[in-house]
Amino acid sequence: MALKLRLSRGGRRNLPYYRIVVTDSRSPRDSSFIERLGTYNPLLAANDPNRVTLNAERIKHWLSMGAQPSDRVALFLGRAGIIAAPKFQAGPKKSAPKAKAQERMKEQEEAAKAKAEAEATAKAEADAAAAAPAEAPVEAQAEAAAETPAAEDAKAE
Predict the structure, then answer these.
(1) Within the chain, where are the H helices?
(2) Residue range 47-84, pLDDT digits in tens
(3) How many other C-beta atoms lie within 10 A of the C-beta of residue 7?
(4) Fewest beta carbons within 10 Å, which of 32, 53, 82, 90?
(5) Model-level pTM?
């Protein structure tokens, strides 16, 4: 008899609740089971201790008898430290965009770069323009101060 540790769904529509059970691998998902080993409530917060409850002693017993955990149950057991954590991909690898979409993306990136450069040059010019009038009165005062002694010298002669 091929044994599996898997989830058996309970609850009602839109309120799922799962029992972690040992069952024959050929039996339907929610049919009779050999033993109930824990629960899983997906509606609770991820850090809630009651989200997954496990009977570690009985799980170890059934694993020693040759029961194979399903992917989801193996993940729970790995997090609980009962078995080595399985390696699962986070999700399927997304396909790359097609040629036209890649061209559009490149054009958008180039347009964004050009816009950023234009803004940077406009800002630099504005800063330079703001700094230039501030320096002009200082230079005018310096020129006026330089001219006044010359004018006084001319009057003195």
Answers:
(1) 56-64, 71-80, 99-156
(2) 999 999 999 999 999 999 999 999 999 999 999 999 99
(3) 21
(4) 90
(5) 0.56
